[in-house]
Give the backbone structure.
Amino acid sequence: MKAQIDENLPPSLARAVHAIATLDDHEVVHVRDLVEAGTRDVDLFEAASRANVEVHVTQDHHQRRPAEREAVARLGLTVFVLAKGWGQLNQYEKAARLLEWWPKMMQLVGLTSRGSIFTIPHKRASSGRILPVKRRG
């Protein structure tokens, strides 16, 4: 499975997760490997689809907008939004926490329909739960 880490997270995070995720035949790239900085999310999702990316990990909370939701659904991406508390973690804590959540995230991708959006709490994986983002309207 191929996943991408959004530009609001450092490229080093993508490389760190990739180093471990390859053990399960997952590839993790940073969005800047695919598009220029500042690319609109809808265009980013299109580029991800062309590059066979199935999972998008972000700290942005605007995937709730209709245009982004439509693109996620149409392209069959699964999006994981890191809850607001992730912003308080330093780079080492963020990498460790994301690696802790990774197996649960990948399992969820296999169990749910494409085009889903989930929130990953900043809690440890052993004491938290991945939640679906509720659709408005």
Q: What stands out?
A: The first strand starts at residue 2 and ends at 5. The chain has one domain: 2-132. The chain has a mean pLDDT of 92. The CA atoms of residues 12 and 30 lie 9 Å apart.
